């Protein structure tokens, strides 16, 4: 493993917000996880930083990164499907490329979603009616005591944007995916194009800030509440996609939190609907 102490986390966040961390540990062998878990108290697994808002003060946290875990291997070939082992640190877009190369289908709707494979598995990420758990057969996790085990999909609780893995703060090491043949290239191009046109990708952001309440869309509620371009400091509700909060330049953690709380308050007052954050908010102990 490689350990960096007193490291600025701003550059490891898609929102470009983050303070000085106690340490950042790059794991090189999964067996190292047990040592880290047994010798540190305050640990946080950092994926690609695409959905985690980091406090910009001092972070007394040992961040763990599995970005070096990027292998893909076809484990079993069958007449109707293949089983593919994918490590957690692989960028999801690279998995889509692998699917195209091997004519696999199943996750095209999620193309263009930023993040690592492990990050999407952790929260059962998805888009346009598809979730990554739709193709999962098994997940290899490291539990809190350092035990590494493989769990069948049906041994795990998972639902919309949440899993037992996330709740228990387990670490995803790899996932076994079941792919049928028939890659949909047009679908991937369409979804990537939609993201480019509808999402404010030109600014630092953390993707969808709030989960969609049942039967409606968070973005629509925020828009109907008149909150597009609501701004605190250099953080703002995007006019392009109001479920995105964007960093206009040197936004502070407190600016983004103020927007989140204000949006929740106004949407509840106007529509009697409670918005729940989809992003992870990492505060300091003082808070």
TrEMBL record:
Domain FAD-binding PCMH-type per the UniProt entry, residue ranges: 17-182
Catalytic reaction list? UDP-N-acetyl-alpha-D-muramate + NADP(+) = UDP-N-acetyl-3-O-(1-carboxyvinyl)-alpha-D-glucosamine + NADPH + H(+)
A Pfam family:
MurB_C
| Assigned EC number | 1.3.1.98
Q: Name one GO molecular function term.
A: FAD binding
Write the record's keywords in alphabetical order, separated by commas: Cell cycle, Cell division, Cell shape, Cell wall biogenesis/degradation, Cytoplasm, FAD, Flavoprotein, NADP, Oxidoreductase, Peptidoglycan synthesis
Residues in the active site? 161, 208, 278
Q: Which coarse location class applies to the principal site listed for this UniProt protein?
A: cytoplasm
Which InterPro entries does the protein's record reference?
Answer: FAD-bd_PCMH, FAD-bd_PCMH-like_sf, FAD-bd_PCMH_sub1, FAD-bd_PCMH_sub2, MurB, MurB_C, MurB_C_sf, Oxid_FAD_bind_N
Q: In which pathway does it act?
A: Cell wall biogenesis; peptidoglycan biosynthesis
CC cofactor: FAD
Q: Which GO terms describe its biological process?
A: cell division; cell wall organization; peptidoglycan biosynthetic process; regulation of cell shape
| One GO cellular component term | cytosol
Q: Where in the cell is it found?
A: Cytoplasm
The signal sequence is none
Q: Which family does it belong to?
A: Belongs to the MurB family.
Q: State what this protein does.
A: Cell wall formation.
User: What is the protein name given in its UniProt record?
Assistant: UDP-N-acetylenolpyruvoylglucosamine reductase
Q: What is the lineage of its organism?
A: Bacteria, Fusobacteriati, Fusobacteriota, Fusobacteriia, Fusobacteriales
Tell me what gene encodes this. murB
């Amino acid at each position: 493993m490689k350990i960096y102490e007193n490291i600025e986390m701003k550059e490891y966040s898609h929102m470009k917000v983050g303070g000085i961390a106690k340490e950042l540990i790059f794991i090189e062998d999964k067996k190292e996880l047990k040592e880290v878990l047994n010798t540190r108290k305050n640990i946080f697994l950092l994926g690609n930083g695409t959905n985690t808002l980091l406090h910009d003060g001092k972070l007394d946290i040992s961040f763990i990164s599995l970005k070096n875990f990027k292998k893909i291997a076809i484990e079993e070939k069958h007449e109707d499907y293949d089983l593919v082992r994918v490590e957690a640190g692989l960028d999801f877009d690279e998995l889509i490329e692998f699917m195209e190369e091997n004519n696999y289908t199943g996750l095209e709707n999620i193309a263009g979603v930023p993040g690592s494979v492990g990050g999407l598995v952790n929260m059962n990420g998805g888009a346009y009616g598809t979730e990554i758990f739709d193709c999962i057969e098994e997940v290899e996790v490291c539990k809190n005591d350092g035990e590494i085990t493989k769990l069948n999909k049906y041994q795990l609780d998972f639902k919309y944007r949440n899993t037992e893995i996330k709740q228990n703060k387990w670490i995803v090491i790899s996932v076994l995916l079941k792919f049928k043949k028939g890659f949909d290239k047009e679908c991937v191009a369409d979804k990537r194009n939609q993201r480019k046109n509808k999402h404010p990708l030109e600014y630092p952001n953390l993707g969808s800030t709030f989960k969609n309440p049942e039967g409606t869309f968070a973005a629509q509620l925020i828009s109907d509440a008149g909150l597009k371009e609501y701004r605190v400091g250099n953080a703002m509700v995007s006019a392009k996609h109001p479920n995105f909060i964007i960093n206009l330049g040197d936004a502070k953690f407190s600016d983004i939190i103020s927007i989140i709380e204000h949006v929740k308050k106004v949407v509840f007052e106007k529509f009697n609907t409670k918005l729940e954050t989809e992003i992870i908010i990492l505060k300091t102990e003082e808070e």
